């Protein structure tokens, strides 16, 4: 299994290192001119076989996790559209910018690259600044959605491989709900006017 983590964010670095610790082969795709500022990125950048441009990382990967900032999402989609994605699995881990008419990033990516391959969503509840948003390490679960089939089973196993509980949120159209879930917790934090973050946990009764 070859994983490609796209984006120069804290989430990208954190997920990549978690998968590297399991023995998985991981490469990172970053924008042109990316400057490694965080210690974790500086360490990764020391290895010649870890950090590449978007296209090089995508070509090398079987499973691609999109963890980029929204300002770089269009560029990522342009590269994806020009690359052969046959037999690859795409997982959107991002959240769109919020307003009352907000447009789901997953839908944007799918429309940008066409119908194939279908896109899954996972890890978006963590946020791009993770683990900064969870300093106590309390988040143990993530929600995922996408069309049923073998690839969705692979996404579930991928989530569980690094210790998260994978909660099935249904088909691809649930991506909008997952982003709304993320924005709701951010709104709660904003209205509380506290220097902290909020996260939801599902409880079955």
Proportion of strand residues: 15-25%
User: Would you identify the regions where 5 or more consecutive residues have pLDDT less than 50?
Assistant: none
Measured as a percent range, the helix fraction is 25-40%
How many β-strand runs? 8
**How many helical stretches?**
7
Describe the overall structure.
With 205 residues, the protein is α/β, with parallel strands linked by helices. The chain has helices at 10-20, 39-45, 54-60, 73-81, 105-113, 150-161, 175-192; strands at residues 2-6, 25-30, 51-53, 63-66, 89-92, 119-121, 141-144, 165-168. The chain is built from seven helices and eight strands. A six-stranded parallel sheet has the order 3-2-1-4-5-6, with helices on both faces. Strands 7-8 form a two-stranded parallel sheet. The protein starts with a strand and ends in a 13-residue tail after the last helix. The model has no long low-confidence stretch (mean pLDDT 91).
């Amino acid at each position: 299994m070859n994983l490609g983590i796209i984006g120069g964010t804290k989430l990208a670095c954190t997920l990549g290192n978690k998968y590297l610790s399991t023995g998985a082969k991981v490469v990172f795709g970053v924008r042109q001119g990316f400057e490694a500022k965080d210690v974790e990125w500086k360490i990764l950048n020391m290895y010649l076989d870890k950090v590449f441009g978007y296209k090089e990382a995508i070509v090398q990967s079987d499973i691609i996790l999109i963890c980029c900032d929204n300002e770089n999402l269009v560029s990522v989609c342009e590269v994806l559209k020009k690359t052969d994605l046959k037999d690859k699995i795409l997982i959107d881990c991002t959240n769109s910018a919020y307003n009352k008419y907000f447009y789901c990033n997953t839908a944007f990516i799918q429309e940008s690259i066409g119908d194939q391959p279908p896109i899954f969503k996972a890890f978006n509840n963590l946020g791009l600044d993770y683990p900064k948003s969870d300093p106590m390490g309390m988040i143990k679960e993530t929600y995922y959605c996408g069309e049923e089939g073998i690839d969705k089973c692979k996404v579930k196993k991928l989530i569980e491989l690094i210790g998260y509980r994978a909660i099935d949120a249904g088909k691809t159209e649930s991506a909008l709900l997952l982003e709304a879930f993320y924005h709701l917790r951010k709104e709660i934090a904003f209205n509380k006017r506290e220097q902290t973050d909020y996260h939801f946990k599902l409880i079955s009764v």
